Write the structure tokens for this entry.
Amino acid sequence: MGAFILKRVLQAIFVVLVVTLFVSYAVRLSGDPALMLSQGAGSVTEQDLRNIRAGLGLNRPFMVQYADFLRGVVVGDFGKSFMGGTPVSRLIRDALPATLALAALSLLLSIVVSVPLGIQAAVKQGKGADQFIRIFSLIGLSFPNFWLAIMLVLLLSITFPLLPPSGWDGPLSLVMPALTMAIILSATNVRLVRTAMLETLSAQYITVARSKGLKDRVVLYKHALRNCAIPLITYIGLQFGNLIGGIVVIEKVFNWPGLGTLAFDAIAGRDYPVLQGTVTVLSLVIVAVNLLVDVTYGLVDPRIRAR
Amino acid sequence: MPAAPLPIAVAAARTFQWRSLEFILGTVLTGVMLLLVLFSVWIFPGRGSAMDLAARLAPPFVQWSHPLGTDPLGRDVLARVLVGGRISLTVGLVSVLGASIAGIVIGLVAGYYRGFWDMLLMRCVDVQLALPFILIALTFISILGGGLGNIIAFMVISQWVQYARLVRGMVLSVREREFVQAARAFGVADLPMLRHHILPNVIGPVIILMTLNVANNILLESSLTFLGLGVDPLIPSWGGMLADGRTYMQTAWWVTVFPGVAIMLTVLGLNLLGDWLRDRIDPTGKL
């Protein structure tokens, strides 16, 4: 077991190294921040540009800059924003709660919806209810998340002015982004619950529980759901990268003050340290969640360790 | 509670009906959208850029000349939706072809020969699973600029891994089967072995993945274009129309609603087909 965990941790570290290396390199190809910073400053000489670059540490070899960046990541120092010099770690710390709140609420909403529906679909396999749920889940997988966001704004802010359309304007602002994400997530999660449940329901202990005369509700929610919780958590954990990717876009549409919006603004302003820091933190979160899921699964199910 | 089990024949008939409905609906949706988009340039010679200044912001379902209304420049929404579909379908089809060909070759080699290349592939898989996909796309595309070619290249680079992983996994089990052992005993060389014995046995699930990825990439392209990182905003495309329409959503909802409906119908058709294929080819649900 120790060897298994060690192997997974080493893999995770390798992944983080590759991701950060790629992002730092890619980000430097994207344009010259010295030019961006000196825009509108009147006549700028080549020497001025060189001074700006030297001041930002951009004249050093790439690997030195990367090593410097990695050293910073370990102690939680991502450098300073090119715009205004705010420490990146502070920008991230300010934006992270908004992203996490959105992620948590949408995941929660989607579980509340998709677990009962997925169980119903599995119980009524092949019948009307199953097909109905299946069609709705397929439709939910078939439009872009930002379009759903726009349609919800059209419905709930413009036609019926119930909710604020964007930005942060009290807790009500969280409702629409979370609803959008929850609908998109539920479309996938319903299918996961259905598949996991179908497998569990064919197990013998379910037949035993039924033949003891236990109520359906008890059999389904106490015996079956608990037993398919592990594969379910694994699937949902593996979907975590998609969840973060979706949230980034949704944040942009709703102008939600989280990491996604931070990253978009950083791309627009060629603000390397901010972009680098944001993508690194998001990747770290995803890698950590995947690692956690893997190790837990390995602990519970010895067959996984052998792979 | 379990209802009395249906006689097998009745159950089969019911499943069959549903399955064929799924297939018919999927084919019709995909086929109709494909044909409309393909022939849109002939149906609308103006290619969706012709402006009818007398009929700016015409609402939908009112006049025959503009069945789905017009945008603030007097351009016909129906024409723009259909012509704009060419971008989405091109991106979806070409990217999937590229990624699947690369992925199949690499997956076959890694699964058949194992060793170093196999290990390298699996590390690529790990990295790909951990990437915040859309952020990498944004970083990548903001460097290289948008444009059809770059979007497709990006999708190929980031998605070949899915096919490679799938093919590798299946090759690992197929290569141990008796018919492969028998072929090997007959002295069949590696290349014919891979082409004639192994590839036909792993291609089914790959086709399912391809169908679903065409759908996914259509969604992805529209997201990127919507965010201003995709194709040129001057070329009509679904994502671009949604981005434009958003600014005057309050006065003209139809400009934003119809491109989204077009995306949904196309992607739904492909998803239905993918689902149907999955049930046909992979009934145990490994995918």
In short: Chain B is about 75% helix and 0% strand. Chain B touches chain A through 45 residues (CB under 8 Å). The two ends of chain B are 31 Å apart (CA to CA).
